[in-house]
Every structure is written in structure tokens, then in C-alpha cells.
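In the laboratory, one determines a bound structure by crystallizing the protein with its ligand and collecting diffraction data. In a computational setting the workflow is compressed into a single prediction: the sequence and the ligand go in, and a structural description comes out. We illustrate the idea with L-MYO-inositol-1-phosphate.
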Amino acid sequence: MTPSSAGTSPSLINDLRVLATRIAVDAGELIEAMRDEVDLSGMTKSSSVDVVTAADKASEVFIIEHILAERPDDGILGEEGGDVIGTSGVRWIVDPIDGTTNYVYDIPAYSVSIAAELDGVIVAGAVVEPKSNSVYDAGLNAGARKNGEPLSCTPKAELETALIATGFGYTADRRAGQAAVLTTLLPQVRDIRRFGSAALDLCAVADGRVDAYYEKGLNLWDLAAGWLIAAEAGATVADLRGGDPSPEFVLASGPDLFGLLRDLLDGAKADQVP
Ligand code: LIP
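The predicted complex, in C-alpha cell form:
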């Protein structure tokens, strides 16, 4: 369901937004404090290049503890396995460190991403990039902000001068397919950026630092908060088939660019790579 159709009370949305932001800021301070202890031999998950660190796990434990201290009846879905069944109808979707590879290499493009879903609709979210103290937040039908200032995506309406962010999966066959898509796309746009954090890519669309972002193969925790932030900044956020974004595919851009980029990516079979 797109984050635009829930009839949720504005005060609840604001409460969830404030809580997500506060905890994401505090978790960001935690992972920064742990950053210098990280070694490159972090544990791996889906492949030898899909790393997870002690900081990922410590951040998720911290976030879950602080959410449940305030809202003990809520559910939680966490990237590192911190799943909690709730009874309130609110489910928190947590990426304790999005951009873990950047975190391990100390490249300043990693984030804490926390979203609140109510009855299946994302209604509040926060993404914090701790290195630069950048705090993005949004509430359903309540706008998106960066460090308290309102956000708007770009009005870009042509491909030739569009700056496009994207990302790549962790397996060789998917990366080969994604490289083939890039070969089609790159000659037709201004340039490509690969920052390494989907949450920050979506925030970059929201604040106009890129004109669009697409990726195949995200998890819901990579996507949830950034989706709302970009949508509340005026972007269209969807898959290539007229549906909501999902692990299958996400494309986010201003409304006037979306159809052009969707057709180009559809022609390149971007959502059909392995
Ligand atoms: C990352 C995403 C990024 C994608 C990476 C990875 P992680 O999430 O934010 O957009 O390209 O492959 O999935 O694994 O750092 O939480």
C-alpha cells in the first residue's frame, strides 16, 4: 500500500515520527562510538561481500530496547533478526546500519533507518547519517525534513541531464545483470552515483541531490523510511509495474521524470535481473 492512503490520526503519526527520529539519532551516536573498533573481517551473510558487524547487532539491540521501553505492545522487524510480534498494529522496520560496507571502510555514507508501519502502511520514518549529523524524517501527509527544514525533490523532466543513483546486489549473477542495465542507461543520462546506502539514496532524491534512484533487490528495512521521506518530498516511489516499491524493484524520482526513466529501465529489463 502506498504511504498516502491511511486515515491515521496526525498526533499518532507525529508521536511515531518523533520517537523514530530520537532513537535513530541515539543509535547513530552508538555506531559512531564503535566505528574505530570495526575490523574488515566482519562476519558475512548472503555472500563473502555481504558483511555484518558487531555494531550492526549492537545498534539493533539498542533500537529495539528503546522502542519497546516506550511502546511495549508494538511489533518489530529488524535486519539482524530482531523480530518481535506486536498487538498494537504498529510495526517498526529497522535497519541498524544501512551501508554496512561503507561503515566497515569508514566511508561517510552509512545510516540508521527506522520506519513505523501502522496496519500495513508506513506512516513515519527517520534516516540519520551520523558522520555529517544529517537527520531526515517524515510523517504520512505531514511532509519530509532534513535537520528540521522542509524537503522537495527536483522537478527534472528530461533524462539527458538527470543524475541517477543506484546500487548493486551481493551476488555475481545479479551484479552482472545490473551492469548490463547500466550499460543501457549510462549513455542516456547525465551520470550515475553509487553511494552504497539505499536509505541515503532515497533521502538524496528527497532533498534534490540526485534526480532519481533505482535498485533491484533491497530488503524492506533498507527501503521503508526512505520511501516515506522521498514520497513526502514529492517524489513518485514505485516499482516498474505500477505497484508499490518492494525487494523486487524501487524507482524514485520527481513525477515528470518517473515515466521516462521507468520506460528506459523496463526496456532494459532492470527488474528482471537474477
Ligand atoms: C545496502 C543497501 C544498498 C545496496 C547494498 C546493500 P546494507 O544495504 O543500502 O543500496 O546497494 O547492496 O544492500 O546491506 O548495507 O544494509
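The chain has seven helices and 14 strands. Keep in mind that any predicted model is a hypothesis to be tested, not a measurement.
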